[in-house]
Amino acid sequence: MNLLALLDLASVFVFALTGALVASRQQLDIVGFIFIACLTAMGGGTARDVLLQRDEVFWIANPIYVAVAGTAAVLVFFTAHKLESRMRTIIWLDALAVAIAVPVGVGVARSLGAEWPVLLMMGMVTACLGGLARDVVCNEVPLILKARDLYATAALAGAAANILVYEVVASRPFAALAAGLVTFGLRAGSISLGWRAPGYRHEPPRS
Fold first, then answer.
1. Which residues is 149 bridged to in the sheet?
2. pLDDT tens digit sequence for 85-97
3. Is there a domain that residue 56 lies in?
4. Cβ(102)–Cβ(126) under 8 Å?
5. Is 49 among the domain residues?
6. Quick one: how far is CA 202 from the chain centroid?
7. 135 is in which domain, residue-wise?
8. Is 76 part of a structural domain of the chain?
9. Number of domains the chain is built from
10. Helix (H, G, I), strand (E, B) or coil at 89
11. Model pTM greater than 0.85?
């Protein structure tokens, strides 16, 4: 199994944990846990593969991803009550999952010969859409839309770091590492230190 596949499995597992934790906040049954976990874990990658017109969507080509997401859901179903703060755990696990997913999205697009604007978009799509779907379906305020938190911005910066490092050293592992570190670093700074992106400020039209 290559690096890209390992990272994809890791992002699926961690995203599935967040999905199941959100399901626990909604007090869903075990089937609901598994559904939300799979939606979260595979939503971004599914959108990526459809947009890139891959031969098969990744989890259809290899159902091990469904098994991994389901296992994470069952694990959370029996252990979520032991967590002191499920919301804080969701936020940090989500940050980790985004940091793993960004280099996966860029890597998949690169393997198909995509140009750099597509690499940027696929890094963001893979990292952000699953969590957005999770929060919308569970009637939670999407993490990506909370205030001006560095979320999509962190994913974009991570994808850009991947592209730049790959151009310099032509090493996919180093590029993936750079993407993960930049994404997680910005997201962690936003969570812990209150880093924010500049927001739109409305000014009344001049008379």
1. 196
2. 899 999 999 999 9
3. yes
4. yes
5. yes
6. 31
7. 3-143
8. yes
9. 1
10. helix
11. yes
